[in-house]
């Protein structure tokens, strides 16, 4: 124990220990052991997150506001951690603010995260940063992520399970990245998709589009179906409406 550490008894809970960086520790029994630690320095944040991502076995869930991304270096570091977990067979899920889709650098990052094997969803409002590892450990910031707030780590199922339940409620309300709008800041359209969209929005039928492009009608239908899925549209009419609103004709 460090020289300035203090220990004592918590009535009905067990022993606690206070040291620099440790806020509270209680151990009424092995199954209910709880440790809360605080890390005020940015370099400590990185060390703790690397330790947790290296040790996770089954699941890693994240709510991310995006405030930690100060540039390309931060994006690459975050991607490396996520991809490393996914390669080891860990189920990795992440929820981000929908507004990031309209920032080209961040939108491209989200696509790369998804391609690395992470299940990505977006939400209109992400209220805070939260990471849950194996439902045993949770990390959150003790204030706005952009304000240099300390990182708090909670170890033990007593509280971590509650944070996992909170995460699950956000996950269920979020929209899968694959169903978000295919606007110019989100998804790059291929030449065939652009041609089909251009003709479809001009009122061409599938057969006429097929003849115009020298492809088959089933090929056209396949492109349209994929576009509807990407746009989260339930019909061709809805897909056309969303495309008219979200795709700049100059991009076609």
From TrEMBL:
This is Regulatory protein, luxR family. Residues 186-243 form the HTH luxR-type domain. One of its GO terms (molecular function) is DNA binding. Gene3D superfamilies: Winged helix-like DNA-binding domain superfamily/Winged helix DNA-binding domain. SMART domains: HTH_LUXR (SM00421). GO terms for biological process: regulation of DNA-templated transcription. SUPFAM superfamilies: C-terminal effector domain of the bipartite response regulators, Phospholipase D/nuclease.
């Amino acid at each position: 124990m460090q020289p300035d550490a203090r220990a004592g008894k918590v009535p009905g809970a067990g022993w606690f220990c206070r040291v620099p960086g440790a806020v509270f520790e209680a151990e009424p029994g092995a199954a209910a052991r709880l440790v809360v630690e605080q890390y005020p320095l940015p370099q400590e944040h990185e060390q703790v997150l690397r330790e947790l991502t290296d040790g996770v076995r089954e699941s890693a869930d994240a709510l991310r506001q995006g405030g930690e991304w100060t540039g390309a270096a931060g994006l690459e570091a975050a991607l490396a951690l996520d991809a490393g977990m996914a390669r080891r067979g860990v189920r990795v899920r992440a929820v981000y603010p929908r507004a990031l889709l309209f920032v080209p650098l961040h939108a491209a990052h989200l696509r790369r995260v998804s391609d690395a094997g992470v299940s990505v969803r977006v939400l209109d409002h992400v209220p805070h940063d939260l990471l849950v590892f194996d439902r045993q450990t949770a990390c959150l910031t003790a204030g706005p992520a952009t304000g240099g707030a300390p990182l708090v780590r909670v170890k033990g199922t007593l509280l971590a399970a509650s944070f996992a339940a909170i995460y699950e409620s956000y996950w269920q309300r979020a929209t899968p990245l694959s169903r978000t709008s295919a606007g110019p800041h989100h998804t790059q359209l291929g030449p065939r998709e652009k041609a089909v969209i251009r003709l479809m929005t001009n009122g061409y039928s599938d057969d006429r589009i097929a003849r115009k492009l020298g492809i088959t009608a089933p090929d056209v239908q396949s492109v349209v179906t994929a576009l509807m899925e990407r746009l989260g549209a339930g019909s061709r009419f809805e897909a056309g409406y969303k495309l008219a609103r979200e795709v700049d004709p100059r991009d076609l």
